[in-house]
Write a structure and sequence with these properties.
By secondary structure, this protein is mainly alpha-helical. Helices cover 61% and strands 7% of the residues.
Length: 140
């Protein structure tokens, strides 16, 4: 059994429950599930932030964001992930300065990202659009 440390708290997970998995690309069969797990992991790290500098949590957030960025071919989503990286770097490296504001900004960006991924997934699964990729429909 593998152990992950999230912002000072310990949470046990088996290898099969890893939200980002071993590869950086998400397969079509588990896209939504993997993205939801990544979103949940990022949200958990940010919500559990105690206010002090936490470099272990920062490394984990950056790793999750980079893997998600590599797996998602959507400019809007990549921009939101960059915002999460920037705000998390400031919040988790400097401690209590502006922590509540930064935490709120990160959680807002994650919600917008989650909403966009939900829309992309709904378009991808929509009947009559089997030949079109959702990413191509919403690419900005």
């Amino acid at each position: 059994m593998r152990r992950d440390y999230v912002s000072g708290g310990r949470q046990a997970r088996s290898r099969g429950d890893d939200p980002v998995g071993a590869g950086s690309r998400l397969s079509p069969g588990n896209d939504a599930l993997s993205r939801c797990a990544q979103h949940a992991a990022l949200k958990l790290i940010v919500e559990r932030h105690a206010g002090a500098a936490d470099y272990r949590a920062l490394r984990r957030v950056l790793e999750l964001c980079r893997r998600a960025t590599a797996a998602i071919d959507d400019r809007y989503c990549r921009d939101k992930l960059r915002l999460v990286e920037d705000f998390a770097a400031e919040m988790l490296s400097r401690g209590e300065q502006r922590a509540q504001f930064l935490q709120r900004q990160i959680l807002n960006a994650l919600e917008l990202l989650h909403s966009r991924l939900y829309s992309l997934e709904a378009l991808r699964r929509a009947p009559g659009r089997s030949g079109l990729k959702a990413v191509e429909l919403l690419r900005t």
